[in-house]
Design brief:
It is built from two helices and no strands. By secondary structure, it is mainly α. It is elongated, with a radius of gyration of 18 Å.
């Protein structure tokens, strides 16, 4: 039988999701610059800029103060 998810597993998963979203946005910004004929510093700048924007977006979407609980939207017991 499967037990409940521990707080450590939950925070580890949340961290991986945050990093994944940030990297996805950063790589996406770099790939978008390939539509033109950019130089390597321009691509690197776009990736770094995308990582910064992705980090800010993750910080906004997943604030640290919000606790992730198992009872989401349900009735209180």
């Amino acid at each position: 039988m499967v037990g409940p998810i521990s707080d450590e597993e939950r925070s580890s998963f949340a961290f991986r999701v945050k990093v994944g979203i940030t990297v996805l946005i950063g790589v996406s910004a770099g790939l978008i610059t390939l539509q033109g004929d950019p130089s390597l510093p321009i691509i690197a700048g776009a990736v770094v800029g995308g990582l910064v924007v992705g980090g800010l977006l993750v910080w906004y979407l997943f604030p640290e103060g919000t606790a992730m609980t198992g009872n989401q939207g349900g009735r209180r017991r």
